[in-house]
Amino acid sequence: MRVHLASSLQDALAFKATEPDAWPIAGGTDAMVHWPGAHEMHERTWLDLSHLNELRTVEFRDDFVELGALATYWDVIRDARFTALPLLPQAAATVGAVQIQTRGTWAGNIANASPAADGVPALMAYDAEVVLGSRDGGERVVALADFYHGYKQLEARPEELITAVRVPLRAHDHQDFIKVGSRAAQAITKVGLAYAHSSEGWRIVANSMAPTVCRCAAVETLVAAGTAVAGPDDLADAIAEDLTPIDDIRSTGAYRLRVFGRVLYHALQPICDSFS
Ligand SMILES: Cc1cc2nc3c(=O)[nH]c(=O)nc-3n(C[C@H](O)[C@H](O)[C@H](O)COP(=O)(O)OP(=O)(O)OC[C@H]3O[C@@H](n4cnc5c(N)ncnc54)[C@H](O)[C@@H]3O)c2cc1C
What we know:
By secondary structure, the protein is an alpha+beta fold. It has helices at about 10-20, 40-45, 75, 85-90, 100-105, 105-110, 120-125, 215-225, 235-240, 255-270; strands at about 1-5, 25, 45-50, 60, 65-70, 130-135, 140-145, 150, 155, 160-170, 170-180, 190-200, 200-205, 215.
């Protein structure tokens, strides 16, 4: 196994330019899970980012917050300024336990591209952007909502690293993050919902409901149009248009569709006049 311990962001980008197949490691909480058994992991070249303190940042600017690529869940949980973006600490508090929250990064959650990721839906509900860096291409910014092309298919070139995540600072009158799992803590999401409403409109995001975490365009249109909704079943067509959950060891697709409809209805019923 080869491990390159990056000494600076510049060094990391130079390494990725010459060895685009190298696998970055941030907190290692996803990357290391298969370590003892998986033979191919031992043959990989690893690019260890963990010493790059220049990426371990949380900066509040005028109209956005920038989370450096090594910013962890714990960095957000313990920072009172995130009352301005409450879905982030709310989602962070549901990720694993404290050990994972203090090591796991938001960028790692994005790049790992699990459909069940909990950080991603909270970020997507706030229209977050992914900042990609490369040695020769400089900086490229991609909307998180456009970052996934399919299961584990990312809008990132092999020579690029995620260097930061930007989250717009907007006023939201409604927002929530809801995770359905087997337990209240230390559980992988079976059905997940994050939503936020601002002057930019509704952002309704589902996790564990499709090959990627995704916005629910048909549901957003229905809610924005003020279409009358008398109960969860009235949301079923829009949900089926947006989401294609699978059967797996944690749930069936049918269960996920049914529960997502109910979670969504009961979340929006008190705040949307069109929901009776
Ligand atoms: C016990 C346990 C419980 C967990 N519970 C949850 C949970 O409840 N919810 C949840 O969402 N997740 C959970 N996870 C998964 C994991 O903790 C998160 O996805 C975490 O955010 C990953 O971040 P990391 O820094 O550890 O990523 P790493 O493991 O270091 O990397 C993950 C992936 O991202 C890539 N990567 C990392 N940084 C970059 C970068 N800067 N640029 C490009 N690619 C990069 C790596 O190459 C790798 O493919 C859990 C994991 C464990 C072990």
